[in-house]
Amino acid sequence: xxxxxxxxxxxxxxAFALLACAEGETEAETEIETPEMAxxxxxxxxxxxEPVMDEPAGDEADLPSTLAEATEGESDIAMWRVxxxxxxxxxxxxxxxxxxxxxxxTDEFETAFAEADAVYLEADVLSPEVQAQxxxxxxxxxxxxxxxxxxxxxxxxxxxxxxxxIAPLGIQLAQLDPYxxxxxxxxxxxxxxxxxxxxxxxxxxxxxxxxxxxAGKEMRYFETAEEQLRLLASADDEKQADYIVADIDEFENxxxxxxxxxxxxxxxxxxxxxxxxxxxxxxxxxxxxxxxYRRNENWADQLETLIEGEEGTYLVAVGAGHLxxxxxxxxxxxxxxxxxxxY
Length: 343
Prior knowledge:
Layout: H1 4-11, H2 14-25, H3 27-30, H4 41-46, H5 67-70, E1 79-83, E2 87-94, H6 107-115, E3 118-121, H7 128-141, H8 156-166, H9 181-195, H10 204-215, E4 218-221, H11 225-233, H12 237-247, H13 254-266, H14 270-281, H15 285-309, E5 312-319, H16 329-335, E6 341-342
Parallel strand pairs: 2-5, 3-4, 3-5
Antiparallel strand pairs: 1-2, 1-6
Helix pairs in contact: 2-9, 7-11, 15-16
């Protein structure tokens, strides 16, 4: 089993990760303790020691176990090119959180960015107006109804297992009781990734958007941040709670799982990224359909309209999971008569 919460945050929906990070900034106003809170001195003293992981065997020994290892050497991030006689679209897969200081920009990316007349991202999740709007949606989309707590979705045995697994993050389940399972899962994932060294400010969307603004490039988006949030919030709460239970043991090795996916992405291996995602979602295929496949088809429709209706060069930067796995954006473009070639 692979941790689908972490995979979703890294390569699925940019608003999911950034909303959870932003929520930590408003905890003083809401008086809700979030995963981003630092432990008190007493909690630090009482918290269990970091688990000691067994040495991996076989092929697993070659996998990166830290973010530094995952991003060693020269980047070879996968890109694709698609279009017609007068329209060129470059596709690059992104990660929404990354460790600081990674030199991921390849020559191919720099060329595509320089040529691009406009840049497409999944959604505008960075402007102050949109971040304020996302915060306003929390009571409606992220909070449990009165009389329901997050803990109520789990048996006493499951509660104990979850508390043991997330204790190194400085959290206990009761702190997340106001949240619906989907948002609690996102918060747990963000807390784990940030503990491992991931930073949303180092995510590719943040950097690409800043570079585009500096270069005066037009920004376009496939969907809104509200659409992303409502999409995940539409999922069944019981199933979202099941995801937490299914993934919780793997929080003991968050950096390992994080690093494995980042390494495959950084080395330009979409097949490996796809294998990781397939394993993540195999027990819950409806989640892959919700978070990836439906959106991929919608984006392919928009790109078909772009290619048929406009001239020029465009850079599309979306979560790497949308470009690696089954039913990718490229697959849906192929169905519409446009073959994407590796660039």
